[in-house]
Amino acid sequence: MGNLLTNNLIVLTIVIGVPAVFAWLLTLVNRRSKANLVNRFGINSQVYCGFLGIMLHEISHLFVALIFRHGIQSVRLIKLPHLHADQTDDLALGYVNHTWNRNSPYQVIGNLFIGVAPIFGCTAALLGLDFWLAPGIGRAIVHLAATPEQLDWQGSLQLLMTSPTNWWQLGLLLLLSLSIILGGFDLSPADYENSALGLYSTCGGLVVLTSLATLIGWTGWMAPLIAWGLTVAIILGSSLIVSILVMVLTFSFTDH
Q1: pTM passes above 0.85
Q2: CA 36: distance to chain centroid?
Q3: pLDDT digits (tens, 9 = 90+) for 92-112
């Protein structure tokens, strides 16, 4: 009984809790940074600075919506907002309008993952950039997450130090990462509302599947899941740190 409760708590924390907490914090911080940019440089500055993240945000929604067989009505990966528009949709920086069958549990559950898809899409993009432009960083992150029961900080640091990177690669990595972080991790109220539609069904499904797997003694999937969750947490944690630094920097843009 103890293992049953523990495994369910671990699964719900990794799949639901960790992304939810980071999504809330990243949204809060990056929304403040965007507001500072808008106040100083105008409403379109958030698009110019975060264009890559905005497109990845919408691509993530679209990709997961297709996986869950939602009907795609219209897509726009990036657009300039209109501050004095009559319709609130004109303030959006991009959109994916989709429909679903309310009688299909699969499509209803999909709403949760579609809503938070940018968190995972942008996380994957950041990890991919690390491996492309600074392989040492990517290897260090994966190595650290590979042993969640005993984090090998020394091994990760060694991988980081023995993989030299050119200055232009680090500079490009910083610029692209900033654009992704600033424009991609800010979940809109519509994203949260959409996610809420599938939250209870998803939690129920996870509890049922985890309980069945635990009762029949199949727990080999727990270690890879924990390693995956730790990888996501490390990348999102670093994104949050950079986001806070960017927010502090943008405060200098505001008029005093």
Answers
A1: no
A2: 22
A3: 888 999 999 988 989 988 998
